[in-house]
Design a protein that fits this description.
heterodimer, A: about 450 residues, mainly alpha, Ammonium transporter fold, about 65% helix, B: Alpha-Beta Plaits
């Protein structure tokens, strides 16, 4: 009896001391526990999108002989980009620099402490913001791997995507989200672009770069005559669902706090995804006679991509519409347009991310409203529906810059890496499979 | 001794196996196979690309039986595997030169 009372007293005592202490210290910029909790959770959710979300989604879409190699590409990004970010690329993306690139002031995490950075996120430690942004930097190059799946050398991929992270991702992230960035709507950019969670920074860059990779590397052996259907739509299904859930961290976490804006982004994300999945499924039902599981989950991903730039700027009904347009639009991209041009974008990184990101970015300019996010000031017209038609032009400018940077940067880097170590595996290795030839493993061994 | 190979629909495996056991045939080997005779395949769609799947899942049952049991085995298979539609499968019969029990080197029909 006495022991229990003593323990209870000991537990209450520290609380009493803390309250007394708080009453004495003067007011300082405080870290919000709620905001930090949500942001750390969001960072974890976004990492989950890459591993295992994307790894499973892509892994299921390739042939069995390449499943591990495909998953390894995402995993390699989780590791390599993290180290790169810690050393230099966070500083290049978010450090103070010029309108196009950050400087090296924050290299080696110098100056990135537990105190908030008032420009980026005044209520959470700067390291929380840094680690949250890192997860975006990880998934962006991982998305590109879908374009050259089943034929790229592992060493070449590591080198190419590391360079890509520096040459394409960091400048794009800086322009849209960095201090003084050319396209930054919140921090004084010359051409303010509305990109809440990375429609241009993540999806347009990765999607367009993916297209360039697919064209440069050329088609897989046997494409398109030999069929290479997914070896496990089951894995892709699980991956897509993990992407859906993880994306709440991607979009709602981009509010950088746990406020109503995060709620708006969360709701918009969910609504758009559902509408997009229905859009793709219905379009497929009409065109092919049956709605496939792969189609439905692909539609969902298209919706997630398209709502990314719009998530913290539009009303929920607009989100439904954006999702529907993306679902049907990406369906046509993948089934009709891709066939016309004949490029081998193995896993439709361009068809879903490049096209979906472009659609979403433009529609953000149409539907953005100060009611949800007064980014230009309370009551100031934000998107076209509020009377600011110019925003659509700004969005187009941002998209155009993303396209140009991606195309030029990717081409140069592909050429460079090709000259140094060669990009593609040999024809024999490609036929035998990357799991065995690149990694000395087999994904499944049901016999043992 | 005769070898009886039967390619049947996978959904008929349990019924055929039970009928064979009832007929007194205890030893058999079951293989998962793919194939087709005159049965047409079907098309599948993945991300807008059409794939013709003409190798259909089948079950192959192999057994080696004494000559006098062969007809019983064949009847057991025919009566349970038949649906009357294309795709029911086929039975092949061939002569076996020898059979050996690995455990004790017994040879000939008594090894079956």
């Amino acid at each position: 009896m006495h022991l229990r009372r003593l323990i209870r007293l000991l537990c209450v005592l520290p609380l009493g001391c803390a309250t007394a202490a708080l009453a004495q210290t003067p007011a300082a910029p405080t870290v919000s526990a709620g905001d930090n909790a949500w942001m750390l959770t969001s960072a974890a959710l976004v990492l989950m999108m890459t591993g295992p979300g994307l790894a499973l989604f892509y892994g299921g879409l390739v042939r069995r002989k390449n499943v591990l190699a495909t998953m390894m590409q995402s995993f390699a990004m989780m590791c390599i980009i993290t180290v790169l970010w810690a050393l230099v690329s966070y500083s290049l993306a978010f450090g103070t620099g010029n309108a196009f690139i950050g400087g090296l002031h924050n290299a080696f995490m110098h100056g990135v402490s537990l105190a908030p950075d008032p420009d980026y996120a005044p209520t959470i430690p700067a390291q929380t913001y840094m680690i949250y942004q890192l997860m975006f930097a990880i998934i962006t190059p991982a998305l590109i791997t879908g374009a050259f799946a089943e034929r790229m050398k592992f060493s070449a991929m590591c080198l190419f995507l590391t360079l890509w992270a520096i040459v394409v991702y960091s400048p794009m992230a800086h322009m849209v989200w960095g201090k003084g960035g050319f396209l930054n709507a919140s921090l004084g950019g010359k051409i303010p672009c509305l990109d809440f969670a990375g429609g241009t920074v993540v999806h347009v860059t990765s999607g367009v770069s993916a297209l360039v990779c697919a064209l440069y590397l050329g088609k897989r052996v046997g494409y398109p005559k030999e069929p290479s259907p997914p070896h496990s739509v089951v894995l892709s299904f699980i991956g897509a669902c993990l992407l859906w859930v993880g994306w709440f961290g991607f979009n709602a976490g981009s509010a950088v706090n746990a406020s109503g804006l995060a709620t708006s982004a969360f709701v918009n994300t969910h609504f758009a995804t559902a509408a997009a999945a229905i859009g793709w499924a219905v379009a497929e039902w009409i065109r092919n006679g049956k709605p496939s599981a792969l189609g439905a989950i692909s539609g969902a991903v298209a919706g997630l991509v398209a709502i990314t730039p719009a998530s913290g700027f539009v009303q929920p009904m607009s989100a439904l519409f954006i999702g529907l347009v993306a679902g049907v639009g990406c369906f046509l991209m993948v089934t009709v347009v891709k066939g016309i041009f004949g490029y081998d974008d193995s896993l439709d990184a361009f068809g879903v991310h490049g096209a979906g990101g472009t659609i979403g970015a433009i529609l953000t300019g149409v539907f953005a409203t100060s009611v949800i996010n007064p980014v230009y000031g309370a009551g100031k017209p934000t998107g076209w529906i509020e009377g600011n038609g110019r925003q659509v032009l700004n969005q187009l400018a941002g998209v155009a810059i993303a396209w140009v940077l991606s195309i030029v940067g990717t081409l140069i880097l592909l050429k460079l890496v090709d000259m140094v170590i060669g990009l593609r595996v040999t024809r024999e290795d490609e036929i035998e499979g990357l799991d065995v030839t690149q990694h000395g493993e087999e994904g499944y061994d049901f016999g043992s | 001794m005769q070898k009886i190979e039967a390619v049947i629909q996978p959904s008929k495996l349990d019924a055929v196996k039970d009928a064979l056991l009832e007929a007194g045939i205890e030893g058999m080997t079951i293989l998962e196979a793919r194939g087709h005779g005159r049965q047409k395949g079907h098309t599948e769609f993945y991300r807008g690309r059409e794939y013709t799947v003409d190798l259909l899942p089948k079950i192959k049952i192999e057994m080696v039986v004494r000559d006098e049991m062969a007809d019983k085995a064949i009847q057991a298979i025919l009566s349970t595997a038949r649906t009357g539609k294309i795709g029911d499968g086929k039975i092949f019969v061939s002569k076996i030169d020898d059979a050996i029990r690995i455990r004790n080197d017994e040879r000939g029909p008594s090894a079956l």
